[in-house]
Amino acid sequence: LTMSTQPAHQRPLQQDWANREYIEVITGSIKKITDFLNSFDTSCRSRLASLNQKLTELERRVEYIEARV
């Protein structure tokens, strides 16, 4: 049955289900994006912490070498 051949009282119900399915798809997509962004944030923070640690070590080495010269 198409929308035009359905009884008038069924059209709002059919539209409601279509809207609910659409909202469910959008909600699922938003959740996937949120999960990805949270994972990306965690990964970036970890990498930045590692780089910060390496940079701090290099700065200490430079200070040590400068002190010896």
Automatic annotation (TrEMBL):
Species per Swiss-Prot/TrEMBL record:
Elysia chlorotica (Eastern emerald elysia)
By sequence similarity, the record places it as follows: Belongs to the BRK1 family.
Q: Does the keyword Electron transport apply?
A: no
Q: Which GO terms describe its cellular component?
A: cytoskeleton; SCAR complex
Primary location: cytoplasm
Which residues belong to the signal peptide in this entry?
none
Q: Quote the InterPro entries the UniProt record gives.
A: BRICK1 (IPR033378)
Q: Which keywords does UniProt give here?
A: Coiled coil, Cytoplasm, Cytoskeleton
Which GO annotations describe the biological process of this protein?
actin filament organization; cell motility; regulation of actin polymerization or depolymerization
**Record has Transport as a keyword:** no
Question: What GO molecular function terms would the record report?
Answer: protein-containing complex binding
Q: Which domain of life is it from?
A: Eukaryota
The protein's matches in PANTHER family, at most eight in alphabetical order, are given as:
PROTEIN BRICK1 (PTHR33668:SF1)
Designated name of the protein: BRICK1 subunit of SCAR/WAVE actin nucleating complex
State where the protein is found. Cytoplasm, Cytoskeleton
